[in-house]
Amino acid sequence: MTNSHLFKSNLSRRRFLQTSAAALSGLGLSGCGWTLAQVRAETSVQDKSNRLFIYTWAGYTDENLLSSFTAATGVKVIADVFDSNETMLNKVQAGGGNVYSIIYPSDYAVEKMQELGVLIELERDRLNGLENLLPQFRNSAYDRDNRHSVPVAWGTTGLIYNSKKLQQPPEDWDYLWKNQQQLYRRITLINDVREVMGATLRMLGYSYNSTNPQELKQAYEKLKALKPAIASFTTDAWKEQILAGDLLIAMCYSADAADAISENEDLRYVIPKSGTSLWTDTMVIPKFAPNVDAAYAWINFMLQPAVAASVTERLNFATPNKTAIKQLPTKIINNPSIFAPEATLAKCERISPLNKKISEDYDRYWTQLTSG
After folding, report:
1. What's the pTM?
2. What's phi and psi for 282, nearest 5 deg?
3. Which residues, 6+ apart, have CB-to-CB distance to 343 below 8 Å?
4. What percent of the chain has pLDDT over 90?
5. Across the chain, which distance is largest between two alpha carbons, in Å?
6. Cα–Cα distance for residue pair 108/195, rounded to 1 Å
7. CA–CA separation, 23 and 15 (whole Å)
8. pLDDT per residue as tens digits for the range 27-64
9. Which of 216, 204, 236 is nearest to 58 (CA)?
């Protein structure tokens, strides 16, 4: 899929910039605190090629973002998309990703890519703006000292529900099971094995990243019991359905919840009290990158506080950029659907890579759960 396919509305947390004519119009290239020299790599990004291929989540780019980068650097960006970290990793391992100079893995996928030896170690003197990142994003467990990745967005996973139709608000994952009859066929879960299994494991008192076969079996059996009430497994389509009143509750990512709530004030987002996942999406440069210079220029572009602040304000992503946060309105900073409170985050877990055997167990249960 090429960039011509990316500019339709996408409702997953992966939507980074909308196709609005004003998307970057307020970020005038000369007025947002950075210059062309800061965006360009130290050597001309056109020395090897005037094209930059990016492999990213659907909706993470739009025409305004791409054209602004081209205006600043002379490099044309072609963005292809993947729908999951697993899809991306499979393509990279099969050798099908050799055209890409920037890839957007989530945190646990960064660890996996390091294990596979497919990422370059970033040259610090070629990066501008790492000092703008919050401390916890400068030395994360999945990539110490940002040696291989630069974070671009973060958030949580939880439940969105219609407060007018559900008199008793959900507080934890077990709400779905306890109210299965009332919610029958009006529930959706994310189309992601690690998120769905992880949430169920957490509800049972286990880790989101459990490797215990008996715990995995328990989680699968719980989900199997809930399946008749589930309308579908979808990461995206729930929004139109809940806005139309067809759904009562949906598992979703925080950024998407905030976006839906902006369209219907009756909707509420809750982070389950037993805990959930905390995710970060990043930018990396693979070893097979054909245009490393342009890749550094892209990362520097995305690190600019004005760009990060605009994205957060318009699209409800929590930015890891502390300088950008200072530019945000108070109502956004205080919105728990975007910036979750510290006490809540303390109960969250990052999704971690699993060994091959355990991964196969997760996948087997997922196939059984979603087939038929």
Report:
1. 0.79
2. -130, 175
3. none
4. 62
5. 63
6. 12
7. 13
8. 443 333 333 334 444 334 444 569 999 998 766 777 77
9. 236
